[in-house]
Write a structure and sequence with these properties.
three-stranded antiparallel sheet; 13 strands; M1 Pyruvate Kinase, Domain 3; eight-stranded mixed sheet; single chain; 5 helices; about 20% helix; about 220 residues
């Protein structure tokens, strides 16, 4: 595959119906084999998330100031803390990632990606990075979340995606997802609609991703 990557269109029908929460995902710290990404090493990580609330299982999940109840963080520099309490990822990018995995001959690449595969807490539909600005508020049920920054991926993404260029592909594609802080705690449930309350709109997620994309193109 050429490392020049172009964005794919999101589902127009989903966008017309409004943004929706498809799945809520949590993970616990466990040993992550990063042999396919970084010389056979292992690290502790909670990047492997599992769905605990979806359309078929509408469990209610508590959102606390530092993230979802039951969700653990092994490395607070990349996920966790007040500014990275919750990680959101659009389902529209899933098919694109599966194709990259097929091209890289990653294990299990023929199977559709499960919710939480990208390490996200919230899998959404109809809400892309390009829709958001730093400081926007997302309202889901009684919870209010503030958009803080796009994800800055680390080598653990290579491990969970099963091939060595996943991090670079995230930078080049701009399919990064966003980190959120928690303005108002409460309970959420999959299937809920997401309202965007605009902030001051001085810095867009798109501009940050474009800058990162340019830097990634310059790197060897």
């Amino acid at each position: 595959m050429d490392d020049t990557i172009t964005s794919t269109d999101c589902s127009s029908s989903a966008r017309e119906q409004g943004a929706r929460l498809l799945s809520i995902n949590i993970g616990v710290c466990q040993t992550l084999d990063i042999g396919r990404a970084s010389e056979g090493l292992t690290v502790e990580s909670a990047i492997r998330k599992r769905s605990v609330s979806s359309a078929s299982e509408g469990a209610v999940v508590e959102v606390q100031k530092l993230g979802l109840a039951g969700d653990e963080h092994a490395d607070m520099s990349v996920h966790g803390g007040l500014d990275k309490a919750v990680y959101l990822y659009p389902v529209e990018h899933y098919a694109w990632w599966q194709q990259r995995r097929i091209e890289a001959e990653a294990p299990g690449a023929d199977k559709p990606l499960a919710f939480g595969t990208l390490g996200e807490n919230l899998t959404t539909q109809g809400l892309l990075e390009t829709d958001l600005w730093i400081g926007d508020t997302l309202v889901i049920d009684q919870v209010r979340l503030r958009v803080e920054a796009p994800r800055n991926p680390c080598f653990k993404l290579n491990a969970v995606m099963g091939y060595r260029k996943a991090v670079k592909h995230m930078y080049l594609s701009g399919f990064a997802g966003v980190y959120l802080s928690v303005l108002q705690t409460g309970f959420i449930q999959a299937g809920a609609y997401i309202e965007i309350v605009p902030g001051r709109r001085e810095e867009s997620i798109s501009n940050i991703l474009d800058w990162r994309r340019g830097r990634a193109h310059r790197e060897p």
